[in-house]
Give the backbone structure.
Amino acid sequence: LFGGDALARLLGWPFWLGVLVMMAVQGLVGALGYEAIHRLQKLMSFVLAVAFVVLAVKMLDGVSPATSGTVHGMDRFGAIMLTSTVALSLSLSWAPYASDFSRYLPAKTSRTRMFWYTLLGVSLSFVVVQTLGLWGASVFTDQTAGGVQKLLGGGWLGGFGLLA
């Protein structure tokens, strides 16, 4: 839905058309197969890294982190547990992809070393992305594509954010 919303905003389309086109593109990439998905992932890793750096730099200029000063006691504990569970399930859901990429490693690669590098890569990237999300929660309200575009100031930079 985010991609469909971003595409609709970028091209001035209705929301439903953006979602439909995004679904069609995802279906096409899936139909092209495994190698196409891996090539797209390699490319998008760099594009998204640039996008997150740009977002972080823009947020340094006047975005205050969202606070939760009204949550106390068991409500606060519940919120922490929910967030931790979501973060853990997100990282565990990526485990099959890590093993999928591991088939390209030499057969003599240390399993222990592979485990720790994978855990470190997944954990660090999720901490960075989730920290940016918490930091930007005050401006990324219920319309995240609109929030990204607004934060980046529109124009070509806002377009890049939506495209990424």
Summary: Residues 2-163 form one domain. The mean pLDDT is 84. The two ends are 14 Å apart (CA to CA).
